[in-house]
Amino acid sequence: MTPERIALISDVHGNLTALEAVLADIDARGITRIFNLGDYVGKGPRGREVAELCRERCEVNILGNWEDFLLAPEPDFGRESVGLMWWRLQAWEQAEWLRTLPFSHDFWISGRRVRLFHASEETVHRRVRFDHDEQEFLGLFRNTEATGFDLPEPDIVGYADTHDPYYETDRNRRTVFNTGSVGNCMSDPTPVYVILEGVMDSEQEAPFGIQWVRVPYDAEAEIAYAAEVGMPELEEYTYELRTGFYRGNLREGLRNDEQPTYHRRR
Q1: Distance from C-alpha of 51 to C-alpha of 84, rounded to nearest angstrom
Q2: How many C-beta atoms surround the C-beta of residue 256 within 10 A?
Q3: What's residue 30's pLDDT?
Q4: CA 74, 79, 84 angle in degrees (round to 5)?
Q5: CA nearest neighbour of 107 among 32, 45, 33, 46
Q6: 264 within domain boundaries
Q7: Which GO terms describe its cellular component (predicted)?
Q8: CATH code for position 83
Q9: Phi then psi for 20, rounded to 5 degrees?
Q10: How many structural domains is the chain composed of?
Q11: How high is the pLDDT of residue 231?
């Protein structure tokens, strides 16, 4: 049985420069299988181009919360309609494909059943942070209407959404990990992705590994492109890419020394 490596990427959010850097690193490692955990669009200036490239390069593509609400047939954007409508129109050519992506993806690796989804076991719109409680941890392994009830429950759950990579296990070998974000990572804003290594599609126990990879890229080039095309919320986008702090902190007028880390509950 020969071990194989697959790359897991997520939360590119229209940041094509970061995606291209990450794909180049994946290629340099000789990895040919790429799974994407969603959030291709919004926040950054090139959602359509990101979707097109992921559609071409990724073997598995999963629905994210941004695809679900931004590209809905009849969206309700409320007061934040200017930026959201801009991102919606920019990505619209890929809307049909993005809206119909699967909720989750299950597979075997080295005798462990893995389930990937974007945010939680029930919906792409519920966030599970790294400092969750035991009930939230165990809930991630449940079969739901969204994941399907007719599948074995997973041993490993990989998800995204929070832009905050972490790893956690319990005494029953259940494992949860978060991929972090390629295009909008918080705390450390350097793009990050995951490599899984093991014997793919095998129910026989064998060595298994998880690795996170940080990939430097030219954030200023991405910011310059966003400015050139007149993307709304440019100040907020620039703030996130340069500092790794959430844009909500900027809107609240907090100084840098007052800023909470994005993943902490407030």
Answers
A1: 17
A2: 8
A3: 98
A4: 55
A5: 33
A6: no
A7: cytoplasm
A8: 3.60.21.10
A9: -65, -35
A10: 1
A11: 97
